[in-house]
Amino acid sequence: MSTQASTPSTVAAPPITARGVGKRFLSNGGEVVALDGVDVEVKPGEFLSIIGGSGCGKSTFLRILAGLEKRDAGHVAVDGTPIDGPSLDRGIMFQDSRLLPWLTVEKNVGFALAHLPKAEARERVAEAIRVVGLEGFEKAWPHQLSGGMAQRAAIARVLVNRPRVLLLDEPFGALDALTKIQMQQELLRIWQAEKSTVILVTHDIEEAVFLGDRVAIMSSRPGTVRRIVDVNLSRPRDRSDSAFASLRRKIYAEFFTVSDAEIEFQI
Amino acid sequence: MAAVALPRIPPRLRRAVVLPAAILVVWAFVAHHRFVDPNLIPSPRTVASTFRSEVLTAEYAACVAASLKRTFAGYVIAVAVGIAIGTLLGVSRWAERLVAPTFHAYRQIAPFAWIPLISAWVGGGEPCKIAFIAVASLAPVVFNTFQGVRAVAAEHVELARVLEVRRLRFAAGIVLPSASAQILTGLHLALVTSWLATFGSEFFLQISPGVSRILIEGRALGRMDLVVVGVAVIGAIGFALNAGIAAVERWVLRWRPAQVAEHA
Q1: Given A133, B166, B175, B261, which is the most exposed site by the fewest CB atoms within 10 A?
Q2: How much is the pTM?
Q3: For residues B165 and B152, what is the distance between their CA atoms, to the nearest angstrom?
């Protein structure tokens, strides 16, 4: 970056600690245990994938880390500081881009920068737009963007705030397969450049393995982390690699019986 | 000549002109053959000459200006008060429970019912006219602002939390734009109402310079040519105001994928 950053943004990616996290919801008068005793330790600068079926509470867990939901039990902390509400230091991305349709791409990206001097805000926006590869679309309206471009803009909106933690809630879940692969590679590039701590929630095994340093596998009712698998594959990773395939199969076997898995891989 | 010029007119406009043209033809026919008393239905020619002598004058231009001034004065008050009340009702459950029932009762009262009260308080002059216009136009602004503000998407509220957006910026940057389509519908209705109420205020309150002067004179003198000209002028100005605010709506809402539908 050409200018001096006003905040020491990416200097130190923080560790994230979650211990005994529990969450209950009331539904139809009954109580549903969404999360029970979730323990996760994320190392500074690590990329953790969390995978689980729908309803396992993985999104709820991420929302607790984002400060959007209150936990009923346990302890969550970033860099030792307990999480107590949302913070720009923890950028979250959702499955939908959540761009504000009445603002152009650049106004969306800079939406949270109202407190900065104009020139600095403009520079940060331009930088973020360049990082996600949306140059030339600064003045476009969100409805003119494709799904992948909208998610790029959403990434840029997170990056302008220079968060040390990225929380990604199935960010590519609504994209087509090719765009998804492209966006995964972009995300890795951004992560390696920004050196932030990343937690990605997904239901896509290949995505979890391709991106994560480790993959936390969640099971449902009650939602809890059943296993954490190390992904000891060098980067850049090759999806057609046999080590990649066997790891993918190993995680697959966590969700389905092995015979199902065999059928899958005979194809 | 007509055959050459015709294709240049857009089909929509051509269709819109059919009915007025037919009315004009029937009217000219009826007037020409004196089927009815010309004092009741003056001929188009008489009306046209009255239009030239009464409307195309500096004096009448001043009357139009005076009317538009009070229209906009009343309208601006209605818009400012209406958006404030509507936003408050939409944002605060508590305010809604407290104020909404009274507001819904207020909506049921014909604006003319307020004339005795308003004129007792502020007299029958200009302030009274402006107050009447404001009172008449307030309800659509409040109602539509309230509906629009209340319908702000939960996702956008969450986004504001994640981005640590402050209260004022949340209101100006998220709530108002997301409610803007509905608010503009209210502003549109209110402008139309303001213009109608301007005529009402001139007709029922103290006589003062205004577009309705021709109409009031025509009625007093029993001259239907004046009345017809007055009606036409009021209609034309109303039409222009409507087209103007529709254009503003399209411009403000240009971020939307589909263009705003034309208002009836």
Answers
A1: B261
A2: 0.76
A3: 15
